[in-house]
Amino acid sequence: MTANRNSLAELESAVPFERRHIGPDAADQAKMLAQVGYGSLDELTAAAVPDVIKSTESLGLPDARSEAEVLAELRGLAQRNQVLHPMIGLGYHGTFTPPVILRNVLENPAWYTAYTPYQPEISQGRLEALLNFQTVVAELTGLPTSGASLLDEPTAAAEAVALSRRVGKVKQGVYVIDADCLPQTIAVIRTRAEPAGVETVVADLRDGIPAEVAERGVFGVLLQYPGASGAVRDPRAVIEQAHELGAIVTVAADLLSLTLLTSPGDLGADIAVGSSQRFGVPMGFGGPHAGYMAVQDTFARSLPGRLVGVSKDVDGNQAYRLALQTREQHIRREKATSNICTAQVLLAVMAGMYAVYHGPDGLAGIARRTHRYAALLAAGLRDGGVDVVHGAYFDTVTARVEGRAAQVVAAAREAGVNLRLTDADHVGISCDETTGRAQLAAVWRAFGVEADIDALDGATADALPAELLRTDDYLTHPVFHQHRSETAMLRYLRKLADRDYALDRGMIPLGSCTMKLNATTEMEPVTWPEFGALHPFAPEDQAQGYLTLIRELEERLAEVTGYDTVSLQPNAGSQGELAGLLAVRAYHRANGDTQRDVCLIPSSAHGTNAASAVMAGMRVVIVKTGDDGDVDAEDLRAKIEQHGERLAVLMVTYPSTHGVFEEHITEICAAVHDAGGQVYVDGANLNALLGLAKPGRFGADVSHLNLHKTFCIPHGGGGPGVGPVGVRAHLAPYLPNHPLQPSAGPETGIGPVSGAPWGSAGILPISWAYVRLMGSAGLRRATQVAVLGANYIAKRLEPHYPVLYTGPNGLVAHECIIDVRPLTKATGVSIDDVAKRLIDYGFHAPTMSFPVAGTLMIEPTESEDLAELDRFCEAMIAIRAEIERVASGEWDVADNPLRNAPHSAAQLGREWDFPYSREEAAFPAGVEASDKYWPPVRRIDGAYGDRNLVCSCPPVEEYEG
């Protein structure tokens, strides 16, 4: 007899990646569809998605490939990159990532799949790691308050401009930038300054602020320390002059140099900004890297971005939380001076851990070695007759070679080293942690110089100015002295990871945040040196693999969204918003419609929308939201008529912020277009559209996309993110460009919005791989299952909690909002109580009180299987039963498992005086003791932390005894 057998074709395609990415299998999907009342995914989405927006054609993407095939393709692309030794500098440096940090942070899903620590009780590990980062920045810069990372150095400098204007006494005047600042920083500031009505002046400040500039009034000054040219100058005189003019002074400082040089704070600076990239974070062709900002105490409550603070829990135990966490976008909205939403948490954690591992002595040793190589390099050049421009420098030497600069740079390239071609007569050479003797020899040969490094070493003095040498101690806290061995470091990282809740533990059902699978196959190429070790300003012929990947990803994102062109430069969703709005502004101005400055925004919009509009020089006008959650069409028409010729753009989220497919979106777009405006569709909810509808085809002119949501780049504890902007053809000439890489954008573009030409290029292989693995059909099914999951949860929870908004046929999109307000009114059980009680059940809470106060917005994503969806639903149903016990009087409203949640292991070990049992507290229905997640602290007192702002490691004295 012949046994039954499968064909080779069947065996070759037995387990497509799609089945790994999508949680519910066919049988589970059938059960879920039955609960929702539909026979198939196609029937469900046909009923949920309005006909007027549906795509009629399939996505024009290459067929899906297996994980092995995609990794092989990526290997081929990586091999087309040529990684030469990077001595270009300009804020990007070679660094050695300690393998214990590479493996246990960057490659560890316990760190990279976590969400922003808005639920601090289950985020204590990464909050401590960020507190370490803040401490490193604060102590090295000599300024007491540091944030928990910004996006990169140039955007941090641009944030400093806005901060200076906001907190300074001089409200008019100009902003002065030293000519020796990084060119990309100057360009980003200019992009951001012009629409904000800020005039910038770039001047040589070696001899102070020129009189003709000073007499115009100066509200702020930016200095680079050391300069882009490498020069180390004493800035105290110009800082004093600036202060006499009433200006706020920002110093953009290299963190590694600050282990040897006097800190900006001690020099008199008000603000310090920069990058932590060279603290163990790969260059990645430009990012992601954690920018930093530190300020005087008096500016702490105006600091943009996130600030980790020290508070206490209900037992008085020390606990960490995000301090002042909603002060900018969600409270200030159109009055915000920053649209920062994402941070670079994962990279800030790496940089902080680099400092923990090396400690102050190790960091200073790396700095001394780096400087020593620069000093010997310069000495060899001088001995060979080459003019070295500066006598004082840290790691970068500028050499003058009349008319020979290009020849020298080309010769160095032939020897495997990239140098900076400054102009026809000057070459910049930067040393770093990875520089060695071989590189110095190669550079000398490129200049036509022969030198004996050992002989030079005995005869060459250091080149740091004596008056600027650092004399104070820094990083004295025990955490920077306890983890020298790899064993100790490994255990520290594990201890912190165990205090957190990330996707490797369970579902994170956050609405508007799309916490989906970040597949290992997608993540793996990020750490390959061909992608990680490439300098962003390397010659383009050395980055052909990267540029091919970037071009293909841009084309595929354009295809799935219906736009004509995509720019990948914005390194966060907020920056994509700004880039898109600046493109709209530039388009109107090019058409002579300079009066068009009104941005219509629904009242339910994410706070960054309003902040981005103001930063783009627009005036925000709020449009009402109807009782059904849709944009109030009547109010929209009234606002269009009211503002007429001044209308620039409507910003709208689709599906709506309330999680429904609005049926009148095409009419809304048409009304705006008829009035001469443009339509911006916020791409936050694109996970409900891929393969079903294309914003660029149903009326939108521009969108930003969140690659850290829909396209699988992980949230990393609150960042990295990538926020590409897609536009229709008429807006394409106004996309971002870059002064150091002409091919990064159109010549007519708005300027750069990020420091690197292609933003956070180092993580783009993740999204490229996701699209390649899924193909057209896979992306469509992922969307359909995301919609199915949200409707399944809505149907299961509807008998217990009101579902606040629904769209066509009573269905939601990819998320649903349940209303806790009636229960709060009846019982006193708050939305916080429900969120914290979910921790006891082993869950991260859904999004709280956005877009409606007192509600939970739930987004399951397509990656959660039915067992996990049911576990969540059963936990919510059990919590509803617990609320009923409060309502009945069985439990006191002020003393019950919800009000006292979460419950810690330490709490259970003490005398028990609660009116419910230990088992009810820690092991509610469905929670197994063997799988229990224990929060390290109990409920944290947020108000205490905001009143008593502590944002660096607690004093050493607390560790005595």
Automatic annotation (TrEMBL):
One Gene Ontology term from the biological process aspect of the record: glycine decarboxylation via glycine cleavage system
Start and end residues of each Glycine cleavage system P-protein N-terminal domain: 19-447, 454-736
SUPFAM superfamilies in the record: PLP-dependent transferases
Keyword Oxidoreductase found: yes
InterPro entries cross-referenced by the UniProt entry: GcvP, GDC-P_C, GDC-P_N, GDC_P, PyrdxlP-dep_Trfase, PyrdxlP-dep_Trfase_major, PyrdxlP-dep_Trfase_small
CDD domains in UniProt: GDC-P
Enzyme class: oxidoreductase
GO cellular component, as recorded: cytosol; glycine cleavage complex
Top-rank lineage group of the source organism: Bacteria
Enzyme Commission number(s) from the entry: 1.4.4.2
Single Gene Ontology MF annotation: glycine binding
Location of the Glycine dehydrogenase C-terminal domain: 782-903
Positions where N6-(pyridoxal phosphate)lysine occurs in the chain: 709
CC cofactor: pyridoxal 5'-phosphate
HAMAP family attached to this UniProt entry: GcvP
NCBIfam families given in the database record: gcvP, PRK04366.1
Subunit structure of this chain's protein: The glycine cleavage system is composed of four proteins: P, T, L and H.
Protein role: The glycine cleavage system catalyzes the degradation of glycine. The P protein binds the alpha-amino group of glycine through its pyridoxal phosphate cofactor; CO(2) is released and the remaining methylamine moiety is then transferred to the lipoamide cofactor of the H protein.
Protein family according to the UniProt entry: Belongs to the GcvP family.
Official protein name in the record: Glycine dehydrogenase (decarboxylating)
Species, as recorded: Streptomyces armeniacus
